[in-house]
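INSTRUCTION: Work out how this chain folds

Fields: amino acid sequence; protein backbone structure tokens

Chain under study, with its fold:
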Amino acid sequence: MPLHLRILNDVEKRILSGEWPPGYRIPFEHELTVVYGCSRMTVNKALTDLVKKGLIERRRKAGSYVSFPHVQSAVMEIHDLRREVQALGLPYRYRIVSRKKRRFRREDHGRLALPSSASVLEVICHHFAGDRPFCHEERLINLAAVPEAADESFEEASPGSWLLGKVPWSAAEHRIRAESAKTGIAAALAIPAGSACLVIERTTHSGGLQITHVKLTYPGDRHELVAQFAHS
């Protein structure tokens, strides 16, 4: 076996076995030349092939890291972010950034169709896959439809998971688009400002009432949507 293929296979085996998880920095090129007793050109060829296979990413002046796999989501499903992260084999956690009960505002009309006298709960939280930011969530909950949300701390479950277990939804509307990350979103997702992001906005209904509107923002290079169709 050519030596560059041996290096490739050894690294690939460690990645696929989980020994080197997503985000792990693999040894530098000069370290691998010592381990395998070969030239830097041979190591570079192996690493280049691993990049082509999507297993590693090379960062200028920082070395090579195990890639985070892309998340695939069905377009018309109500997503549970915990399950999305756990499907990647990574530990999940989330953090509430802000949570406040307030009156419905004029600028909220693009999100929910409620009277100006309505009360809503506004929640912003960040979801993580391991130590890496996974998704930025902005949510409005209609307190007329889900009054118990006003006293819920969301300490044991994120707002989305809590609502899925609490309120049976009957209809949903999805809007999907690409956006450039503004400064605040970029900081939350640990990406450069202006980076491409995938944005999913969803409004769910139950028994004629609007329950919640959520805006989920993902780094564009780590998430994709999948739709399956059948010809009848």
Notes: The mean pLDDT is 88. The chain has two domains: 3-66, 71-226. The radius of gyration is 22 Å.
